[in-house]
């Protein structure tokens, strides 16, 4: 049964640009007023007033530095991290057992649970949950949308998150908590896509053509590992044109 009317989780973005521009303007105004005040001081009061403009200037510079640092942390740092992950995933895969990279617009299911001995090259399973199998990949929506198919999980916990690599924002979520555990198809579209959503699919609109996908499938016990892995492998992507042709 397709989850055709299932809602997607949309995370509102904090208006960082306006906040940081406001801080920068405040710093400029404070610096300007400090200099004006220093210049307006009389000669007999100069020795007394010299220190105050410097103190105000110090705080103005501190505010400006804080604004610049926040911009770098919010916008530059996540972009660098996700760019490195994209390179690593496409070139080497998502776990230490991968013999090659994972092509763009392809999901790979990690067959083993995370373990302390996992290689540092294991992008998804280093320092991760030890009771879920991971599914990961990288999307490029510049050519056409992709259709994510999830199998019937029969009540099992699972989740698939869609991350904007520019700032690390999770813009879409598919999983038991939001869309249920029935089989479903989800159309992931890039910005500005004007096509028609096919019947039987739920649209997830990405703010960027580049998307990091990370999924999790619960493993209930050691004997359940094989079943969970089969379900993880069935969580797959198909280009929209091929998906429509196969309907």
Written description of the protein model:
The chain has 6 helices and 9 strands, in the order αααβββββαβββαβα. It is of the alpha+beta class and 247 residues long. The strands form 2 sheets. Strands 1-2-8-4-5 form a 5-stranded antiparallel β-sheet. It has a 4-stranded mixed β-sheet with strand order 7-6-3-9. α1 runs antiparallel to α3 (51-92). Residues 1-14 have low confidence and may be disordered.
Write the H/E string, N to C. Answer: HHHEEEEEHEEEHEH
Instruction: Tell me the name of the CATH homologous superfamily of the largest domain.
Output: Domain of unknown function DUF1254
Total domain count:
2
Mean pLDDT: 76
Q: Which percent bin holds the helix content?
A: 25-40%
Backbone CA Rg: 25 Å
**According to CATH, what is the topology of the largest domain?**
Immunoglobulin-like
Under the CATH scheme, which class of the largest domain?
Mainly Beta
Structural class: alpha+beta
Overall shape: elongated
The neighbouring-strand order within the major sheet is 1-2-8-4-5
Total count of strands: 9
- Determine the number of helices (DSSP H or I, runs of at least 4 residues): 6
């Amino acid at each position: 049964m397709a989850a055709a009317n299932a809602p997607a989780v949309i995370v509102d973005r904090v208006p960082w640009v306006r906040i940081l521009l406001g801080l920068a303007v405040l710093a400029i105004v404070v610096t300007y007023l400090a200099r004006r005040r220093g210049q307006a001081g009389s000669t007999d009061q100069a020795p007394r007033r010299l220190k105050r403009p410097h103190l105000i200037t110090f705080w103005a510079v501190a505010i400006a530095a804080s604004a610049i640092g926040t911009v770098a942390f919010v916008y530059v740092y996540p972009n660098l991290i996700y760019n490195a992950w994209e390179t690593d995933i496409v070139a080497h895969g998502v776990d230490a057992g991968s013999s090659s990279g994972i092509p763009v617009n392809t999901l790979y299911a990690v067959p083993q649970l995370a373990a302390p001995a996992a290689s540092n090259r294991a992008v998804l399973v280093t320092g991760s949950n030890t009771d879920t199998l991971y599914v990961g990949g990288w999307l490029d929506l510049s050519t056409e949308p992709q259709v994510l198919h999830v199998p019937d999980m029969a009540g099992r916990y699972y989740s698939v998150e869609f991350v904007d690599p520019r700032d690390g924002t999770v813009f879409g979520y598919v999983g038991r908590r939001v869309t249920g555990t029935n089989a479903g198809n989800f159309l992931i579209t890039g910005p500005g896509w004007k096509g028609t959503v096919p019947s039987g699919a739920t649209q997830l609109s990405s703010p960027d053509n580049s998307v990091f996908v990370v999924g999790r499938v619960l493993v209930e016990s050691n004997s359940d590992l094989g079943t969970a892995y089969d379900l993880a492998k069935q969580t797959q992507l198909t280009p929209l044109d091929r998906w429509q042709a196969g309907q």
